[in-house]
Amino acid sequence: MIEVNLLLPLSLFVVIALSISSYRKVGKRLKEAFGDKKISIREAIIMVIFMGILVVVISLIPDYAIQILFIAVLSYSLFIFTYLFLRKILISVIPPTIFTITFMLLNYFLMDNILAVILITNIFSATFAIIITTLIGPLFSWRVIIAFAALLTAMDIIHVFITGYMVEAAGRAIRLGLPLMFLLPRLPSMRGVTVLGLGDVFLSGLFSIQMTSKYSLRAGLLTAASISMVFLVFDVIVSNFIQNAGAFPATLLVLLGWSLGMIPHILKRKEKKVA
């Protein structure tokens, strides 16, 4: 019997949809904060290089150093995001405080509880995926996001198939309870867990926000649905027909899903030209 795990595409779609909703709510405030600032191709290249180095760093540096680094970065992101929403510094301190306390509890008291690890990791991973996508999404132009996606995919392929650092970093992040990925039980069989990196969700959200900004909310949600469907089909094929499948650069699936979501708009453009 063919196993169809709907938890993966549904989780991905919900997080992207929430990112779009968050972007629509704080878009004006982000414009006030950043003005007309846009990320350049040079800055996009630096971002990808930094992300590639970060994967290597996670694989090599001591555990405590990784934890301190990510607690600092993610707590700061939570503070900035909350402040943009509420404009109140004292209240904005509460979310990063909750995150830090929960992270410490997870690492010192709950790491033996698999359900607690999966639940807490997924909640914080979803939160940070939405925050990062909302804050950075409006800073990309179409030209830059396509270049960024191509470079990120190249980096992903290298670290998955050549260096192996992506797989090693993912395993270490799971062991340390870092909210850098989604841990999704395989339903309904419960045979293992599907791991989806935060970078793949971030890229999916970027494309969907760009489609929302350029076309409409419907276009953004359709793009999110298209990307999610590609993940569903890929997961069905791999889990049912390919034995001993290893890690795969999911950025390729994101690009395919976005490309399929663009087809209706390309066809409309051609119809207008013909008319």
Strands side by side in the biggest sheet? 1-2
Order of helices and strands: HHHHHHHHEEHHH
Percent of residues in beta strands: under 5%
Shape: globular
- Kindly report how far apart the N and C termini lie: 49 Å
Number of helices: 11
Q: Uncertain runs with pLDDT below 50, 5 residues or more? A: none
Structurally, the number of domains stands at 1
Structure description:
With 275 residues, the protein is mostly helical. The protein has one domain (7-270). 78% of the residues lie in helices and 4% in strands. Strands 1-2 form a two-stranded antiparallel ribbon. A hairpin with a 7-residue loop joins strand 1 (181-185) and strand 2. Helix 3 crosses helix 6 (114-136), helix 9 (198-214) packs parallel to helix 11 (251-274) and helix 10 (217-241) crosses helix 11. The protein starts with 6 loop residues before the first helix and ends with a helix.
Which key phrases capture this entry?
2 strands, 275 residues, mainly alpha
